[in-house]
Design goal:
Largest sheet of chain A: 7 strands, antiparallel
Strand order of the largest sheet of chain B: 15-12-14-13-17-18-16-19
Distance between the termini of chain B: 28 Å
Number of strands of chain B: 19
Number of strands of chain A: 20
Low-confidence stretches of chain A: 1-9, 479-497
Strand order of the largest sheet of chain A: 15-12-14-13-18-20-16
Number of helices of chain A: 16
Structural class of chain A: alpha+beta
Largest sheet of chain B: 8 strands, antiparallel
Strand content of chain B: 25-35%
Shape of chain A: globular
Oligomer: heterodimer
Mean pLDDT of chain B: 97
Low-confidence stretches of chain B: none
Strand content of chain A: 15-25%
Radius of gyration of chain A: 24 Å
Largest interface: A-B, 95 and 97 residues
Chain lengths: 497, 412
């Protein structure tokens, strides 16, 4: 193998930053070029607040051309670049590196074009996920990916992380809903990938872009697929004695040929937390499921009734169906609040994100419980059961010496367990800075090297978002190829071992 | 390596270029060995599955050997409860579906010629059929891949679970790459339940404007067909087939609702096809997409059907004997096919059509064409603006350009 692995470049000397800041301010305007140390602190981290690095400066461009110009200036000064959306990511994907330029896309939040008859719209990357659906909701359309942070997270960030959400079980992830993108590359050039019309000839570079965590370019415009709202949605909430029965119910529903729009599970602790936060009158039970079926009315009526029967057969204690949309929203609010609600039952907690084959849910939850118990900790589980995407919330008290480290250790063990069961170290939060170290558990050196080659094809200087995803810092080096002996080797003056 | 190689014969040629050797590895290890060994000699390779899409692209500039994947034809793992399958590249789609049917599951891809098309070929050629309207194309269903790189390294991307965002999306990169980035050895897909029931409705004699208004009505009514294909009949007339699949209750209700909508139109006609007639319609569709010597793919937007019917079809259809045109009405994809009556006029018609489609923001590529047409028309058309990036990806993964050189977009 051709290696191409070497230590990352050292951060630039601080001395160059003031000059660079002046050049960039001339492009975006003084007030959109942030150099004040106290203001820079806002950009030290994203949603993963345990990692913090102050950036060299933060620039908030307002157009594709400004982004391109900023990238050119950064490149000329040999500065690393970290793109940033709303900063809600949970894996440190927008974590700065020392001396870097953070390019924040928050000012670029216009909806540029809407074509509902053909099912697409063109937006800027800073538009919040939910604002896309809001803009077309009254016409009966919506944008399908619905990450829990959708009221604040940006479309650009969604592209970087290939964001999912509860309803991606049926509708797919961001990558299934992005039709085109305008991209500023690491050399400051601008390129369009895809577009509203399908099947642009060439490699599926758009497929590479989505989920590349800011390492292949900076998205400045996006063409999104938008969908007609389904005719009907049926929701039910079912309680179970334990996660075993709830897991079996999920398996039975899926095995029957039903494709739920979403099927979410909460365990006892998560239910307690959600109740505490929302005041919902949920019973104290071992587990609960919340399922949505959507589509044409007759189909949904049939599948929803069937799913309820299957849940009963699997041991459901109680089935509740919302009597109106308001009550349905409340049920979902309970589910969506469960993350934050855990703060009410524990002073601190880690959110983990891993995936297992869904048929393993019951087994893996028991194993997680055991792991936590052995460490003297508790874990609350609230997750996307339909696709096996676990979100264990590891509860701890930072004031108790050793607990934080123990909680981190449990989190790491859970990820390794996911890989052992044939799953993934991340289903939607991304690898970022947080999980780079676990990539080697899931991928071989050859796999990672191949991904690095693809990254180098876009950004040969690895200027964009360095330090993410890859477990070892990599530079691109020479283009790889089959081993060619050096002339000195042929003449016998040098040799390799 | 000789154990699974043989001298090439006439039938091993790709677009008229004959290789010297054919390799037929029967394990992934053997496939790795073939690619690795041939790399040391800088040999140019092409990969062949069922050989149904060999007319895609330009003839390879160099071709020393062909690697056939037909012996890599096993299911590596099928997890019915998790609705995923890991399959070797040389297995045919039909064989895969046959293995899944006992679990009432399917891979929701329906390109023509499933009995010959292999999984690796389907990925490399981005092959799909009318069900793309509901289930998407290969990129929406593939969740993992392994392939042999030009330097003989076996690499893997994605995984075995549907929800997974770890690392770069190598599976999607391989889709439609036509064997120019690596030899696909295995792939993992998400599966769908087999529908309890399916029904096809035929809406005969609609104009292009009528096709467009139908699509508006279908969306307005929140109907969810799995396929909508408008087949050109004559002048400005199309027969539209709409297929619903799912549980009986939903299929029956959607069928009735659509029929009701159409019958409310002034001259709206709609018939529910019996199983045999429906099968005949879809096999005619398959034939038109796979058999004629000239086949062009048009991409545009669903609403462009009117412009295409007005500005593109008359010229193209006049230049072809036994012409046909299929329009995937919800997707904006069209397939023109026939036999060129006269090379010059057919070439001129293709170029004119390409220009018009480009004006609509779409593309026209030739999926099959006689050599005389290929001499006059670039099968790919103008390369996309991302060509430098495409070249850069190619250079990183196949720096010696020995995988089907010259066959891909922009001469890559």
């Amino acid at each position: 193998m051709s290696g191409a692995v070497s230590p990352a470049a050292a951060p630039p000397p601080d001395a160059v930053l003031p000059d660079v800041a002046a050049l960039m301010a001339a492009v975006v305007g003084e007030r959109h070029c942030i150099t004040d140390p106290s203001e820079l602190r806002t950009y030290e981290c994203d949603g993963l607040m345990s990692f913090r690095v102050a950036p060299g400066l933060v620039v908030l461009p307002g157009s594709t051309e400004e982004v391109a110009e900023i990238v050119r200036i950064a490149r000329a000064a040999n500065l690393p670049i970290v793109p940033r959306g709303s900063g809600t990511g949970l894996s440190g994907g927008a974590l700065p590196v020392p001396g870097c330029v953070v390019i924040g896309l928050s000012r670029m939040k216009r909806i540029l074009e809407v074509d509902l008859e053909n099912g697409w719209m063109r937006v800027q990357p800073g538009v919040a996920n939910l604002d896309v659906s809001k803009a077309i909701g009254s016409a009966g359309y919506y944008y399908a990916p619905d990450p829990s942070s959708q009221s604040v997270c940006s479309i650009g960030g969604n592209i970087a992380e290939n964001s999912g959400g509860a309803h991606c079980l049926k509708y797919g992830f961001t990558s299934n809903h992005v039709l085109g993108a305008r991209l500023v590359l690491a050399d400051g050039s601008i390129v369009d990938l895809g577009g509203p019309a399908p099947d642009t000839p060439g490699y599926d570079l758009l497929g590479v872009l989505v989920g590349s965590e800011g390492m292949v370019g900076i998205v400045t415009e996006v063409v999104l697929r938008v969908l007609r709202k389904p005719q009907a949605t049926r929701t039910f909430f079912a309680t179970f004695p334990s996660t075993d029965e709830a897991g079996n119910a999920v398996s039975a529903i899926i095995a029957s040929g039903i494709v739920p729009a979403a099927i979410e599970m909460m365990d006892r602790l998560a239910i307690v937390a959600a109740k505490a936060a929302t005041g919902l009158d949920w019973p104290d039970v071992g587990a609960a499921l919340l399922m949505d079926a959507d589509g044409p009315e007759a189909e949904v009526e049939y599948t929803s009734n069937n799913a309820v029967e299957l849940a009963r057969a699997a041991g459901a204690l109680e089935i509740r169906r919302p009597k109106d949309e308001n009550e349905r929203q409340l049920m979902w609010k309970g589910r969506k609040s469960a993350f934050a609600a855990v703060g009410r039952i524990s002073p601190n907690y880690f959110v983990q994100d891993g995936v297992i084959p869904r048929s393993m849910i019951a087994r893996v939850l028991r194993e997680i419980d055991e792991l936590a118990r052995n460490a003297g900790l508790r874990v609350a589980n609230v997750f996307h059961a339909g696709d096996g995407n676990l979100h264990p919330l590891i509860l701890y008290d930072a004031k108790i010496p050793g607990q934080e480290a123990a909680a981190e250790d449990v989190g790491g063990k859970i990820l390794k367990m996911c890989v052992r069961y044939g799953g993934s170290i991340t289903g939607e939060h991304g690898v970022g800075a947080d999980k780079a170290v676990y990539m080697s558990d899931m991928f071989s050196e050859a796999d990672l090297e191949t991904m690095a080659l693809v990254r180098c094809a876009f950004d040969p200087e690895t200027r964009l978002n360095p330090g993410k995803v890859f477990p070892t810092p990599r530079l691109c080096g020479d283009r790889p190829g089959p081993y060619r002996p050096h002339p000195a080797e042929l003449s016998g003056e040098a040799w390799r071992e | 390596m000789t154990a699974f190689s043989r001298p090439a014969a006439e039938g091993d040629a790709i677009l008229g270029v004959l290789p010297g050797t054919v390799f037929e590895p029967s394990t992934v290890e053997e496939a790795v060995e073939v690619v690795g060994e041939s790399g040391r000699g800088g040999k140019a390779l092409a990969f062949v599955g069922g050989g149904t899409d060999l007319e895609l692209g330009a003839p390879p500039r160099r071709l020393d050997a062909v690697v056939r994947t037909s012996r890599l034809s096993r299911i590596v793992e099928h997890a019915p409860f998790d609705q995923i399958v890991v399959v070797e590249a040389g297995m045919t789609l039909e064989a895969l579906q046959a293995a899944l049917v006992s679990h009432r599951q399917r891979l929701a891809l329906d390109p023509p010629l499933p009995g010959r098309k292999t999984i690796g070929g389907i990925i490399a050629a981005n092959a799909y059929g009318p069900r793309r309207a509901r289930f998407g194309s290969v990129r929406d269903l593939i969740i993992g891949i392994s392939f042999v790189r030009a330097d003989g390294t076996l690499a893997r991307g994605g995984g075995k679970v549907v929800k997974n965002v770890a690392g770069f999306d190598l599976p999607k990169l391989m889709v439609g790459s036509l064997g120019t980035l690596g030899l696909i050895t295995t792939a993992t897909f998400r599966l769908h339940p087999l529908p309890e029931e399916e029904v096809t409705l035929r809406l005969p004699g609609r104009t292009a404007a009528g096709v467009r208004s139908l699509m508006r009505a279908v969306k307005e009514a929140q109907l969810e067909p799995t396929s909508v294909v408008a087949a050109w009949r004559q002048a400005d007339q199309f027969d539209v087939a709409v297929r619903f699949e799912g549980f009986h209750a939903g299929v029956a209700e959607q069928r009735e609702r659509l029929a009701g909508l159409v019958r409310k139109e002034p001259e709206g006609a709609c018939e529910v096809l019996d199983e045999e007639t429906a099968r005949a319609f879809w096999s005619r569709h398959d034939e038109l997409r796979a058999a004629p010597p000239l086949r062009a793919k048009l991409t545009a937007l669903p609403t462009h059907i009117e412009a295409i019917a007005r500005d593109v079809l008359p010229g193209m259809l006049a230049a072809l004997a036994d012409p046909g045109f299929l329009w995937y009405a919800s997707l904006g994809l069209g397939f023109l096919a026939g036999s060129p009556a006269n090379t010059d006029s057919a070439a001129a018609a293709i170029l004119a059509a390409r220009e018009r489609v480009a004006g609509l923001g779409g593309t026209l590529t030739l999926q099959a064409a006689p050599a005389a047409i290929r001499e006059r028309v670039d099968v790919w058309g103008p390369p996309p603006p991302s060509l430098p990036l495409i070249q850069s990806v190619k250079d990183r993964l196949d720096p010696q350009a020995r995988f089907s050189p010259g066959r891909f977009v922009g001469g890559i």
